[in-house]
């Protein structure tokens, strides 16, 4: 976790649009997961996607009691994203869709299914460590750089879909560097936007319109006369999406989480059903950290959970507040164990993770968006934490 004791520094985070090749893959993987959960909430799913010029490859493991028309799901998602023009080099009607999906390994299944493995309870779907983070830096309880980076890519997408800049195309990225003084964000030092576009538009127009219609409406209060702008800094971005670069599920894990603030256990989210603690425990860790900060127990907080495959109880729980807590961190960890369910079955039930909600998570961050479906963003445990901690 970045120490807030640093007096003066610049921190950078990035985001990508839904047309970015890796995000196309995340959406396909989670779209297939949602299709399974919609009809069979106990589906076991671990789906990976690869996209490149004219091709989508879907592979992995899935055990479900429903039938999924995978090519239909894939094409519908690609169409929704905006890849509808064959001239782009990748479109929903003409791409090939290849699938290779097997059932979940019986060896894994027995460890995850209650009463079947060495232990009676439902165990974790894999080993590993997961992190959650929260800070009082923004109303979203997220670091400012990733909040602004996501808002920039959201604005790119909304302007494109509204037809306000008809030369915009689906692929795009944002990056913003925020200057901190005494641990607090003060100004935007540098803003970078790279957006796919049609061939006829000139770079000067792209730069002017992106600054006026994308950057200033989103970042206005953080900009000053020293802020540097880089818009399509290679000079052009006509070839993009899967035609310009291959994409793979799970390759934007820092974009998906905290933009580089906090730690990351390395496990991706998309395409995984909630029995995989890579996903469900990371959501719980965020839920815990956010409620700790919302309760006023600390100004920033990072929570680590770790699991052994097939075992229900976490092998470790760590609460790190970087010295911002007003009670001992050991006391906070003790209270967390009392207030929050930490076994996989309890996490899934409490956060209601067997619903088909996961494609919603794939763009603009799994955290920091207060949607009704995002149960892990609620601060409904803050008061209980305060009472249990005696604050």
TrEMBL record:
It is found in: Cytoplasm. Residues 239-378 form the S-adenosylmethionine synthetase C-terminal domain. Pathway: Amino-acid biosynthesis; S-adenosyl-L-methionine biosynthesis; S-adenosyl-L-methionine from L-methionine: step 1/1. It catalyses: L-methionine + ATP + H2O = S-adenosyl-L-methionine + phosphate + diphosphate. ATP binds at residues 20, 171-173, 236-237, 245, 251-252, 268, 272. K(+) binds at residue 48. InterPro entries: ADOMET_SYNTHASE_CS, S-AdoMet_synt_C, S-AdoMet_synt_central, S-AdoMet_synt_N, S-AdoMet_synthetase, S-AdoMet_synthetase_sfam. GO terms for molecular function: ATP binding; magnesium ion binding; methionine adenosyltransferase activity. PROSITE patterns: ADOMET_SYNTHASE_1, ADOMET_SYNTHASE_2. Belongs to the AdoMet synthase family. Catalyzes the formation of S-adenosylmethionine (AdoMet) from methionine and ATP. The overall synthetic reaction is composed of two sequential steps, AdoMet formation and the subsequent tripolyphosphate hydrolysis which occurs prior to release of AdoMet from the enzyme. Homotetramer; dimer of dimers. This is S-adenosylmethionine synthase. It comes from Candidatus Buchananbacteria bacterium RIFCSPHIGHO2_01_FULL_46_12.
């Amino acid at each position: 976790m970045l120490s807030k004791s640093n007096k003066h520094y610049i921190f950078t985070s990035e985001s990508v649009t839904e047309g970015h090749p890796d995000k196309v893959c995340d959406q396909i993987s989670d779209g297939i997961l949602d299709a399974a959960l919609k009809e069979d909430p106990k589906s076991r799913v671990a789906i990976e996607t690869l996209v490149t010029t004219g091709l989508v490859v879907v592979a992995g493991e899935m055990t479900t009691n429903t039938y999924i028309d995978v090519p239909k799901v894939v094409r519908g998602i690609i169409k929704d994203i905006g890849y509808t023009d064959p001239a782009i080099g990748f479109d929903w009607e003409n791409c090939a869709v290849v699938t290779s999906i097997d059932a979940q390994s019986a060896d894994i299944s027995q460890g995850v299914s209650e009463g079947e493995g060495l232990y009676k309870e439902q165990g974790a779907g894999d080993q590993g460590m997961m992190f959650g983070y929260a800070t009082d830096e923004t109303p979203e309880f997220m670091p400012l750089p990733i909040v602004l980076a996501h808002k920039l890519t959201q604005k790119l997408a909304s302007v494109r879909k509204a037809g306000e800049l008809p030369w915009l195309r689906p692929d795009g990225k944002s990056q913003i560097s925020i200057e901190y003084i005494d641990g607090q964000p003060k100004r935007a030092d540098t803003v970078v936007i790279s957006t796919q576009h049609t061939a006829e538009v000139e770079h000067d127009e792209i730069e002017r319109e992106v600054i006026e219609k994308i950057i200033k409406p989103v970042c206005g209060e953080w900009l000053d006369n020293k802020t540097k702008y880089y818009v399509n800094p290679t000079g052009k971005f006509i070839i993009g999406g899967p035609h310009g670069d291959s994409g793979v599920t799970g390759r934007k894990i820092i974009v998906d989480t905290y933009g580089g603030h906090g730690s990351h256990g390395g496990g991706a989210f998309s395409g995984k059903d909630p029995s995989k603690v890579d996903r469900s425990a990371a959501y719980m860790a965020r839920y815990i950290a956010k409620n700790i900060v919302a309760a006023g127990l600390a100004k920033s907080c990072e929570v680590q959970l770790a699991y052994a495959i097939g075992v229900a109880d976490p092998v470790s729980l760590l609460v790190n507040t970087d010295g911002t807590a007003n009670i001992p961190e050991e006391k906070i960890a003790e209270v967390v164990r009392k207030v929050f369910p930490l076994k996989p079955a309890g996490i899934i039930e409490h956060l209601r993770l067997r619903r088909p909600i996961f494609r919603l998570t794939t763009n603009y961050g799994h955290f920091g968006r207060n949607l009704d479906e995002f149960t892990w963003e609620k601060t409904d445990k803050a008061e209980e934490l305060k009472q249990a901690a005696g604050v």
